[in-house]
Design a protein that fits this description.
126 residues; mainly beta; globular
């Protein structure tokens, strides 16, 4: 059984930074791509960024490119999302997702992810 637990969310001012973590349990972590998505009130869950199984290839939504950085440490079964230059429009619940074992390529589709964390709230005040 795979479980994902996000942490690191909180309240930050416009222009500030936060670092989210996603800790995984189970044996599929190191062979699977991971992604971060977010969902604002009244909106659908949207893609933020995704990284491949080994951590050397990632891509980003245009809205966060050059501000956010995804990374992973397979020895710790943890993925990270460094968020800089935060804006009020970044306010949302952030979710990490893990693709099923063997699916090591990044993906922007929620349907490609077999496991999800419970989410962590990020609020950016203006």
């Amino acid at each position: 059984q795979v479980q994902l637990v996000e942490s690191g969310g909180g309240l930050v001012q416009d222009g500030g930074s936060l670092r989210l973590s996603c800790a995984a349990s189970g044996r599929t972590f190191s062979s699977s791509a991971m992604g971060w998505f977010r969902q604002a009130p009244g909106k659908e869950r949207e893609f933020v960024t995704s990284i491949n199984w080994i951590g050397n290839s990632a891509y980003y939504a245009d809205s966060v490119k050059d501000r956010f950085t995804i990374s992973r440490d397979n020895s710790k079964k943890t993925a990270y999302l460094q968020m800089n230059s935060l804006k009020p429009e970044d306010t949302a619940v952030y979710y990490c997702g893990l693709r099923r074992s063997g699916y090591g390529s990044p993906s922007s589709l929620t349907t490609d992810y077999g496991y999800w964390g419970q989410g962590t709230q990020v609020t950016v005040s203006s």
